[in-house]
Amino acid sequence: MISATVSALADAALLLPASILLLLYLAALREWRLALALAASFAGAAVATILLKLIFNACGPGLANAEVISPSGHVSFSTVFYAGLAILLSVGRGRVVQFAAGIAAALLLVAIGISRVRLGAHSIPEVLIGFTVGALAVGFFVWLSLREGLPHLPLAPVAGGFALTLVMLGGSQFSLERDIALYARSLAASLDVCALPPGYQPWDASGQAATRAFEGA
């Protein structure tokens, strides 16, 4: 129950609308370059994660003792969102607040990673890849934003917007995992690369996912 609740905080059904609201808020403040930097980081993490999912969904099952089939999108995108949010909200609020925000974001992200493993949705290497992708995207955001300087954002509108999104969409689920997996294996078959092991069946007779790779993004 706890793992499912924590994992839901990283679901695209929550984070995509929350990210859009955050970007719109930055745009309303006329922080155009900051909004573009954050949007580029979100997009970079999403594209990198999807590409890695395509590669490993196509080739992962054919590798001996492969532990990576689908790098965690929950982890990669939540890393960008929550770390980026912690950075934005701690600017100009003193070292103690900055330290506390960083620790809180780190603990939440570790909890999300653990929840994905405990739910059987991902292996530890898949979670670590997700963290790596997210951390690189956060680094890219920091590099872009520091060139222009970070503003002191009011806390209440951001916290209120996220709380509203959480109340409305918390617990919802959205995943393209099955579509990505099927496309990856169709592409691999058409290109005649990364042959699957004999008898490998990603779906059972009822059409449900037969491997953990399809249980979550």
TrEMBL record:
Pfam families: PAP2. It comes from the Bacteria. The chain crosses the membrane at residues 12-28, 34-56, 68-90, 96-115, 127-146, 158-176. Residues 70-145 form the Phosphatidic acid phosphatase type 2/haloperoxidase domain. This is Phosphatidic acid phosphatase type 2/haloperoxidase domain-containing protein. The keyword Amino-acid biosynthesis does not apply. InterPro entries: PAP2/HPO, PAP2/HPO_sf. Keywords: Membrane, Transmembrane, Transmembrane helix.
